[in-house]
């Protein structure tokens, strides 16, 4: 799978779990999930995502965007509305402290930060994140 369209998702109004990991998805507009307001678990890990739109589903409890091709963390101001989120997986080649601010207040059980392709040209420290488990994946 390389792309998803609203027509792929619109008839799945009761969808709660969607695992799309290990595909070739390169771009995703979250507006395709506007008919999936009960979606709680979304796994988009191990794809080729370079950017996403910020129209997130507030019912999400699990969102995995790790092991993708993001330059910077795919976090936007809409993440503050993900109050039910327990798991968040992210990846990036660049990491800035400000990128994590929209999720700093969330009470997450688990954060996975895939920094395997991380390129450190400056030393940045992580802000304090409200999580029970922080899993960092660094380059080998």
UniProtKB/TrEMBL annotation:
<protein>
    <submittedName>
        <fullName>Toll-like receptor 6</fullName>
    </submittedName>
</protein>
<dbReference type="GO" id="GO:0002224">
    <property type="term" value="P:toll-like receptor signaling pathway"/>
</dbReference>
<keyword id="KW-0675">Receptor</keyword>
<dbReference type="GO" id="GO:0071726">
    <property type="term" value="P:cellular response to diacyl bacterial lipopeptide"/>
</dbReference>
<dbReference type="InterPro" id="IPR032675">
    <property type="entry name" value="LRR_dom_sf"/>
</dbReference>
<keyword id="KW-1133">Transmembrane helix</keyword>
<dbReference type="GO" id="GO:0038023">
    <property type="term" value="F:signaling receptor activity"/>
</dbReference>
<dbReference type="Pfam" id="PF13855">
    <property type="entry name" value="LRR_8"/>
</dbReference>
<dbReference type="GO" id="GO:0071723">
    <property type="term" value="F:lipopeptide binding"/>
</dbReference>
<keyword id="KW-0472">Membrane</keyword>
<keyword id="KW-0732">Signal</keyword>
<dbReference type="GO" id="GO:0035355">
    <property type="term" value="C:Toll-like receptor 2-Toll-like receptor 6 protein complex"/>
</dbReference>
<dbReference type="GO" id="GO:0035663">
    <property type="term" value="F:Toll-like receptor 2 binding"/>
</dbReference>
<keyword id="KW-0812">Transmembrane</keyword>
<dbReference type="GO" id="GO:0006954">
    <property type="term" value="P:inflammatory response"/>
</dbReference>
<dbReference type="InterPro" id="IPR001611">
    <property type="entry name" value="Leu-rich_rpt"/>
</dbReference>
């Amino acid at each position: 799978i390389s792309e998803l369209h609203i027509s792929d998702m619109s008839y799945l109004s009761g969808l709660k779990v969607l695992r799309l990991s290990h595909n070739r998805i390169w771009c995703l507009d979250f507006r395709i999930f506007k008919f999936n307001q009960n979606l709680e678990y979304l796994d988009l890990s191990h794809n080729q995502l370079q950017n996403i739109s910020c129209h997130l589903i507030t019912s999400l409890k699990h969102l995995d965007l790790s092991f993708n091709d993001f330059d910077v963390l795919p976090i936007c101001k809409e993440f503050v509305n993900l109050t039910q989120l327990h798991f968040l997986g992210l990846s990036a080649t660049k990491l800035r402290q400000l990128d994590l601010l929209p999720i700093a207040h969330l009470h997450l059980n688990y954060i996975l930060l895939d920094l395997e392709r991380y390129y450190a040209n400056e030393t940045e420290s992580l802000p304090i994140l409200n999580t029970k488990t922080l899993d960092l994946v660094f380059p080998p």
